[in-house]
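Researcher: Re-running this chain for the archive, since the previous output was lost when a drive failed. Same request as before.
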Amino acid sequence: MAAENLQDCLRLQLLQLSDSTPFKALALELVERFLDILAAQDQVKLMRKLAVSEAKLAEIIALVRSLDPQPGRSIEQSESEYIVPDLFVFKVGGEWRVELNPDIAPKLRVNPFYSGMIKRADNSKDNVNMKEHLQEAKWFIKSLHSRNDTLLRVGRSIIAKQIEFLEHGAIAMKPMVLRDIAEELELHESTISRVTTQKYMHLPNGVIEFKYFFSSHVSTSAGGECSATAIRAFIEELVSTENPAKPLSDSKIADLLKEKGINVARRTIAKYREAISIPSSSQRKRLL
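Model: Regenerated structure tokens:
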């Protein structure tokens, strides 16, 4: 059986419950008539519309929350997709090391038997053609080695600049742009962009895309810089520990960051918050 929308989905699930289920009728009324008020977290209005006490409303909402807004997921069949990291980052003897993943850098070589035959053969048209193919094969292998060498150099440069991130997490991420790596390795910025696109590192805390390490920055009161990644981590940390009944507004979060010496405008907080899929304070406010 299919549902037309979220409201219909919840209604159908409630209808399947036993009539003896506590607060079933009121939960149905809430879903059918006042779902928008529930989404707005307007507890007082819900109590008035349903003519119930605060305690009863809590029970009704608990019943609605026990429903599955996406029941199709339990029968959905999908194959898991795995990311194969290009580099492995690990700590040995207190020192961070970066190595290529051997699975993405297979050892290729030209068969010496055939290359020897080509070198000893005459200058016939067929053999000249084979010599050209041999040269192309050598260039191809050389290009792969060059690509892997550049990838490893870029990875090591990134990790050398982000040791604090490895030790303390996203809050310690330093501001860094492509140009910083390009200048250090004496490569063009476009080369760094190409090398870091859809490339991944395997770290002790998971697989992370190269691009994650690059972010803009804001100034601190001490005259330093704080990366956008670190600011997003601060926002996540503050929201995770807030009082659900009185969630932090963007202005309050900006004030708390200012106390840490990080000067961020309220609208910037809103932008970062939305980027990490954190709802506004009014949407985060819980009725229970």
